[in-house]
Amino acid sequence: MKRIISFVLIIALMLSLCSCAKKGGIYAGLSYDEKTNVWYTKDEKYKGLVEIMKQDLTQSADFKGSYILATDDKIICIGGVNAKDVNGNKVDAYTTYEIGSITKMITATAVLQLCENGKLSLEDKLEKFFPEFTNGKDITISQMLHMQSGLRRDFITDDTFLTETGERDYEEWKRYYYDGFSDEELLGMVFDDELENEPGTAFLYSNVGYTMLAMIIEKVTGQKFGEYVKANIFDPCGMEHSSSMATGDVTSIPEVVQGKNDLDDIPVEIDTLYLQMANTLRGCGDMHSCVADMLMFDRALLGGRLLKEESLAEMFGYKYKYGCGWMLLDVRSKAWYHGGESFFYLGYNLYVDSSKYGNLYLIQLHPTVAGDEYSQKLMADIVREGNR
After folding, report:
1. Is residue 203 part of a domain?
2. What does the DSSP assignment read for 198-249?
3. pLDDT confidence tier of residue 20, bands split at 50, 70 and 90
4. Is 284 within the bounds of a domain?
5. Residues 6+ apart with CB under 8 A from 36
6. Parallel, antiparallel, or unpaired: how do β-strands 97-98 and 65-70 relate?
7. What is the helix (H) or strand (E) element at residue 157, kind and residue range?
């Protein structure tokens, strides 16, 4: 009987060790808190960071999703909190989410790569690629990357698809949200617009600008945007759970939050909580990823494996607090981030050049738009501890 019990204990231990080392070893060497589904290092050097993560990840039931905190060579904490995936398992470092505008840092990387290869120049004007765009002669690639193009935020506005009677044409709205518009139709919405401001004079967040950057990538490479990103960013980084211009591969389950996204702001005909706009949102919000993959991207980017030093200086050379796909969170603490939000998803990618730990990366991906105050607090706490 004792032998049987010993054998069972050994099997249990082996399964536990396998669980720790699962999925490429990202969990290897970490301790596990089963109650909270949080993995963490016991290295005393990172005790302060671990305590923050443990405390902040359990501060509210509204705090949901996957989280990872790491340096260039150390995993400090991984959490899968208050949510399950499509298979009924607790979310983890490889659960995939819509990452929304976090996409923009990957788009900016792709553009700067092409500048390094001589296929683009930061001073190229939009009219080179879109000669029919009257205002294209005044807007540069650099201004688009830094959100200073003067282009409006989105292709559609509150007045788009309104009929003569002032009611909304839901068939057209539905066609838009189901990716039914061609590039020519999308561009036709903005080509005759007056710019919101003179290019280069002010910050104006523009999804349109980043989608046009994705179109430019397609023009100069002859590849679809998603194909270029996969070949030149995802594959070199080992981001096997990430996609661009795809649908149907998200493994997290989006949640409706009453009063915030309870379907009042999208057409009633849309029958999925997942975005179906792989083409329309390319370059600005089309990508899906997980925290493990985004960590690989961050490490490769800041490690100089995707861009040269000069390009990184451009990327983090902020103008009106916006670099190229990164926003300045705290200049004194050298903290940069970008958020991403779709109808039902919210996420943040934070990079801190910390005085205490070196490069720190915090990625949070949520299947809900609730609890943003806790996400903001976690970022602030990590930045503070990193420079304490």
Report:
1. yes
2. -TTSS----HHHHHHHHHHHHHHHSS-HHHHHIIIIIHHHT-TT-BSS--S-
3. very low
4. yes
5. 54, 57, 58, 79, 81
6. unpaired
7. none
Sheet of strand 346-354: strand arrangement: 31-33, 38-40, 75-81, 65-70, 358-366, 346-354, 335-341, 327-330
Cα–Cα distance for residue pair 225/211, rounded to 1 Å: 10
Closest CA to 277 of 96, 383, 385, 155: 155
Task: Express each pLDDT in 133-190 by its tens digit.
Answer: 988 899 999 999 999 999 999 999 888 888 888 888 888 988 999 999 999 999 999 9
DSSP code at position 351: E
Phi first, then psi, for residue 342 (nearest 5°) are -115, -165
Flag whether 78 is in a domain: no
- 306-330 average pLDDT score: 94
User: What is the spatial distance between Cα 24 and Cα 13, in angstroms, rounded to a whole number?
Assistant: 19
Question: Interior CA angle at 121 toward 115 and 127, to 5°?
Answer: 135
Give me the residue label for tokens 């993959």: 293
Q: Phi/psi of residue 366, each to 5°?
A: -115, 145
Q: What is the pLDDT of residues 36-85, one digit of tens each?
A: 899 999 999 999 999 999 999 998 888 999 999 999 999 999 999 999 99
* CATH, residue 190: 3.40.710.10
CA dihedral 284, 290, 292, 295 (to 10 degrees): 20
Answer for the pair 360, 53: CB distance below 8 angstroms, yes or no.
no
3: pLDDT strictly greater than 60: no
* DSSP-derived pairing of the beta strands 75-81 and 65-70: antiparallel
- Report which of 224, 218, 202, 214 is spatially closest to residue 151, judged by C-alpha positions: 202
Range of the domain at 290: 97-386
Residue 363 lies in a domain: yes
Tokens of 276: 């179906």
* Total number of domains in the chain: 1
| Backbone torsions φ then ψ of 44, nearest 5 degrees | -60, -25
Neighbours of 333 (CB within 10 A): 17
Residue 347 CB contacts under 8 Å (≥ 6 apart), including other chains: 65, 97, 99, 100, 102, 339, 340, 341, 363, 364, 365, 366
